[in-house]
Amino acid sequence: MTFEIAHLDYQKFPALLGIDFNNRSLYKTLKELYKVVPAYGHETVSSTNASGNVAEVLNVSEGTPLYLISSFAYDNHDEIIEFTHQYLVGQRVQYQIKVNNIFDYRDDLE
What we know:
4 strands; globular; 2 helices; four-stranded antiparallel beta sheet; alpha+beta
């Protein structure tokens, strides 16, 4: 189980606020409503401890170690589409990475 918090610009995507994404794809919705498609992104994996609402949603004790994945998705104009924090319980994680265009590094993201 994961707990994810997504941040998107309300000025760019005002209709998203009224949509229930429990069973709907964010990126499919962005494409349908705004013709916006992610072109690339990057993620950082770190660790943190569960607290407050995150601990409650993940059904773990406060202080439980978690993986924290922070990610950015960009469009083909290098504009940020979405920034997320995803919290994962350590003993329930398998992280798989698939890469395309491995020689097309985006060094300017650092």
